[in-house]
């Protein structure tokens, strides 16, 4: 098998994408695990343990993808709640005739 350079690159990209989605705030355990696994994968690759590096890189990518999904879910849920609040406020204004 070829060295897992592609898997390492994919894992790094997944961690970067999760970081961009505020994973530290919304999915801290998952992004922490992904970073740890990525570091271990890089160390394994440097030591010539390619099978371990591949396995750890795949785990890192999976955990980073989970962190990204949880972060996006939290952000979308917050936006939905904000919009619902705005709708409720507008309905209240319509009922009371308040035209601020």
From TrEMBL:
Residues 7-79 form the DUF4398 domain. InterPro entries: DUF4398 (IPR025511). Residues 1-23 are annotated as: Disordered. Pfam families: DUF4398. It comes from the Bacteria. This is DUF4398 domain-containing protein.
């Amino acid at each position: 098998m070829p060295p897992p350079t592609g898997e390492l690159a994919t894992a790094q990209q997944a961690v970067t994408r999760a970081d961009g989605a505020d994973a530290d705030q919304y999915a801290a355990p998952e992004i922490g695990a992904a970073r740890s696994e990525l570091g271990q994968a890089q160390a394994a690759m440097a030591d010539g343990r390619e099978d371990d590096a591949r396995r750890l890189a795949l785990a890192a990518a999976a955990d980073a993808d989970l962190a990204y999904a949880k972060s996006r879910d939290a952000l979308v849920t917050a936006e939905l709640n904000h919009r619902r609040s705005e709708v409720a406020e507008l309905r209240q204004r319509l009922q009371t005739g308040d035209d601020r």
